[in-house]
Specification:
Layout lengths: L11 E6 L4 H15 L3 E8 L12 H18 L4 E7 L8 H14 L3 E5 L13 H17 L8 H4 L10 E5 L6 E4 L4 H9 L2 H4 L5 H16 L8 E8 L2
Parallel strand pairs: 1-2, 1-4, 2-3, 4-5
Antiparallel strand pairs: 5-7, 6-7
Organism: Actinomadura citrea
Keywords: Zinc
Pfam families: PIG-L (PF02585)
Length: 243
C-alpha cells in the first residue's frame, strides 16, 4: 500500500477519461464517496464515444450526442454536475502535444488536488481496460499533470492568451492498469455505481440483470485482494504521488 492524501485535504478532483462510461466502470463508487464528503469532482471525456453502441440505425453523430447525454445522467447518480468533452474521435486517440495541451488547460482551469485517469500501461491479466484510447489518454493525462500543467513555460499560450496559471496536482490515481496499490470499499455505494452504468443504456442495456452480477464478480475479487470482509465490494487503483 502507498501513502494516499486524506480526502479531508482535498477540494477538487478531476477525472480524465477516454470515453463516456469509462469513469463509471472504473470508479463510480469511489466518485460517489468523494462527492458525499463534499469534494467537487469534474469529469473530462476526451471522446464522445461515437464508435460505441450496437445499433446500425444510429448515425455516429447521433451516437455521440446520445453518449454525452448518458454521461451527464450517469454523473448525476454519483453527485457530479460538471461534465466536459474534448470531442476527439473515438478509437483514434493518440498521444500528442495537442491532447496534452487540451488536458493541461482543464487541469489549470479546475485546479484539482487529485487527478483520476486510465492507466497508460497494458494490463495483460485483464485486457479490456487496456483499450488503445484508454492507454493514450492515460499517457497524455499523466504528461499533462507532470510536467505540462505545473510548468508555466509549457504551452505558454495558456497563460498568455487564456490567463491560466500553472497548477500542480498533488496526486494521480490510475484505473485499470496492471499495478494496484490502493482499494476503495464501495459496498454501500454499489447501487449508485449500477445506476450510473445503467444510465449508459446504449452500452449496457443488453446486459440486463447480468450487469450487477458481472460487477459483483470483479469488485468482490478486488475486495478479497484488499482483505475486506466477505461480501464486500471494492474498486482498485494505482496511486502516485505527484506533488
Amino acid at each position: 500500500m502507498t501513502n494516499v492524501l486524506d480526502d479531508s485535504e482535498l477540494q477538487r478532483i478531476l477525472a480524465v477519461m477516454a470515453h463516456p462510461d469509462d469513469v463509471d466502470f472504473g470508479a463510480a463508487g469511489t466518485v460517489a464517496a468523494w462527492t458525499d464528503r463534499g469534494i467537487e469532482v469534474v469529469y473530462l471525456m476526451v471522446t464522445d464515444g461515437d464508435a460505441g453502441g450496437f445499433d446500425d440505425g444510429v448515425t455516429r453523430e447521433e451516437m455521440a450526442a446520445l453518449r454525452r447525454e448518458e454521461q451527464r445522467a450517469a454523473a448525476k447518480c454519483v453527485g457530479v454536475s460538471d461534465v466536459r468533452f474534448l470531442g476527439y474521435p473515438d478509437g483514434r486517440v493518440e498521444v500528442g502535444f495537442g491532447l496534452r495541451r487540451d488536458i493541461a488547460r482543464v487541469i489549470r482551469q479546475v485546479r484539482p488536488d487529485r487527478v483520476l485517469m486510465p492507466s497508460p500501461e497494458r494490463n495483460y491479466e485483464r485486457i479490456y481496460p487496456s483499450h488503445p484510447d484508454h492507454r493514450a489518454v492515460g499517457a497524455a493525462a499523466l504528461d499533462a499533470v507532470y510536467p505540462d500543467a505545473r510548468n508555466p513555460y509549457a504551452f505558454p499560450e495558456l497563460l498568455a492568451d487564456e490567463g491560466l496559471e500553472a497548477w500542480t496536482a498533488r496526486e494521480v490515481w490510475l484505473s485499470g492498469g496492471p499495478v494496484v496499490n490502493h482499494y476503495v470499499d464501495i459496498t454501500d455505494r454499489f447501487d449508485r455505481k449500477v445506476n450510473a452504468l445503467r444510465a449508459h443504456a446504449s452500452q449496457t442495456a443488453h446486459m440486463g440483470d447480468g450487469l450487477p452480477e458481472m460487477l459483483r464478480g470483479w469488485l468482490g475479487s478486488n475486495a478479497a485482494a484488499a482483505g475486506l470482509p466477505e461480501g464486500s465490494l471494492a474498486e482498485s487503483f494505482q496511486v502516485i504521488d505527484t506533488a
